[in-house]
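All the exercises in this workshop are built on plain-text protein records. An example says more than a description, so a record of this kind follows:
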Amino acid sequence: KLVSSTSLGETYVAVYERPVKGSWISMILLWMFASLLVSGASYRVTYNDRQAIRTAFSTNSPSTNREELDGLISGIEEEGSLIEKTDRDDDTEEVELDLSSVIGFFLISSVALVCLFFIVSKYPHTTIIIFILLFGFGSIHSMSIFFTRPFVRMILPRHISMGTYVLPKKVADCFGSDNRQVTVESVLGVSFAVFMVIAWFVFRHQDAWVWALQDILSISVTCAFLLNIRIPTLRLATYLLVSFFFYDIFMTFITPVFFGGKSVMMEVATAGRATQKAVELTCERTLSEKLPMLFLIPRFDYFGGFSMLGLGDVFLPGLFIVYCLRVDYLKMKIFQRENPDQTFNRSQFLLSHRYYIPVCIAYSMGFIAVLLANKYEITINGVQGQPALLYLVPFTLGTFHFLAYRNKDLATLWNISLASLDPEEFEEDTEEGDDHETV
């Protein structure tokens, strides 16, 4: 704003600061997105565990009403062995973490991030393109499992979607078939997933809408990780989250001390920004590329751009929340075995989530702390950004430890794996022991 006074012969210049509007809207959307994503993805990938609860109630509780039970456990009706197999996630291989894998995961993540920092500093766009291609290929399978194949099942009649065809062995392998038979559902589901990944790659610079497609791909990849990796004990969960709590703080806030004022985490997360430079008499400009392992939420202020959320900020707490759900389902199963005539209604089933619901609320509160810290620039070494696990880990892990101590579950969950506590596993081991004694 320029103000001139001819009578005094002086000119005054006042800098006008444009008000930032819409930033709170973006923060609320990011908070809602993260909270719903971590709770919804964790709930989705424990489908098989809920099916086990359904089976336990239907086989051991004769007084349980089938209609009432269907209201408790989400899922679709069993309509033949083929339908049941395709609706479940049994064909995925679950990996249980142990201490060596937690240590290895931590060390590999640390070394890989530092190496990536040096690589993107020299070849930023080439590195991002390689990651985009790898992310695209890797997301096809998870996209088909969690989005496109369920969509095909929803829009096509059962007798059509479950129709089988015999294809050459190498072609059938592309659709996840162990033999040469593939279903219409799998063919259309994988084909739609490939189409969506190609569309995302071709139109990745269309910021107006392609962010939604990237978020869908990232959600499917997150669900795939949560489905295939399991935490057996509270001790390992604590080791994992606490180690990455310090990892996130060091890589975000402390690394500027060792790398010339640059935060390793922020440099890698924001790599691929648009650049331009003068070469002789021409100007060379490169388009902006975004690291694909991010969730993007548009900003609604005049700055534009996106608010970013790393997959690790959802994946690591999500692993722990899946563990919380499995603890809740295990307690339901044990309760049902001890009270075979007991029935559950909807509210009782909801209230039986003694750990899942409080920890999800704790995650949501922790994410509010992340946003407030970022809004009011609570930082170290001038880093513009927040290590989200600095807030999420104490909120989620602390809440679970408090509840487990109050419920007198802490010592048991700390030392014994959930598989060992499962009454079905215990009965199978007992039966095998009896057989050996009989022999």
